[in-house]
Amino acid sequence: MRQAGKVFKSSQLRKILVVVAVAAPVGGCGSAPSSTEGTGSSAAALTEDSEKHFNEPGNILIADQFNNRVIEINRKGHIIWHFGIGPNDVSAASIVGVNDAERVGTLTLMAGTGVPPGLEPKCKDGCADNRVILVDEDGRIVWQYGRFGVTGSGDNELNTPVQATYLPNKHVFITDQVNERIIDVSIATHKIVWQYGMTGITGTGFNQLNNPNAAELLENGHVLISDENNNRAIEVDRANKIVATFTAGGTLNGVAFASRLENGDTLITDSNNNRIVEVDKKDKIVWTYVTNTDPKSNPMMPLPTRAVRLANGDTLISDQFNHRVIEVNHAGQIVATYGNINAPGFGTTSTSSGLNAPYDAKVIDDFTGLTPPQGHDFD
Description:
Shape: globular
Oligomer: single chain
Order of helices and strands: HEEEEEEEEEEEEEEEEEEEEEEEE
CATH superfamily: TolB, C-terminal domain
CATH architecture: 6 Propeller
Mean pLDDT: 88
Number of domains: 1
Largest sheet: 4 strands, antiparallel
Distance between the termini: 35 Å
């Protein structure tokens, strides 16, 4: 997505148009919720259900994008924990247009992308969030980079942060999309210590990106970047040299996410092709899952945004504009579904009431193919 005053890239504009067509209206910038559904504190809310346990390995953390919240669910789809008030609130009390979330110990790291122009009548130029935050179990922000509602590229400023990865050295990778860069930020100093991509410059040349969508730290110290509108995943070293490029034989269209698997393959979310592909070191496709084969699927393209391989061999997919998160096995069979296909919704107790454009989902304590966070103790 793009914020006010920026040109929308074609793939991002399509995503927005689909939401406008299917999502229920939400309130204006900073407005109070207009109904009882979604009211309440933005702080994490635990229930007393004996089957629900905060931060239990195997639970799923979901960035429920246009419900402006992050939720933790158990395998029955029951909501255990949340941050954000709901779709009617686009204030700093929620995480507006959240694209990404991961559990870091008992903390939750999330990226507030914001809402683009045209979706909020009371902030017609768009509702910027532009924060990456760490919150504790009670919903208190313990660390933040970027300022709510402020769009920029200067000190402590972001422009559409779409993803964040907590690093073992207590740094955070932030994919600062509209600033066309990946930045490595020290938690302790709030300083940028490394950057890939020239701020505000779009391209395919040395140290250039086009609408980056994610970055993961690899075991060899390199960085795997999802260079969305350049239709590639690139592996770069800390001297900003590209050491490997993955395009699935030139067939990718809109790389929303990429991760490196234990067997050396790379799992790629090929969003505009509505598929997930696994490619080997030679860029040959060795596994594929397509998300738009169901007759009930979004006819304008479901545009999946995140696929992560799980320890059990299944793949967890954020099927964004099918408004669901699905787990599929290696044979391509859906073994679990959260949300309702092509039907956005919002509920406070269960995903059976629906999700609204879930952008990211990860299983807690399962970092297969992902950067495992360490050193997350905060005083």
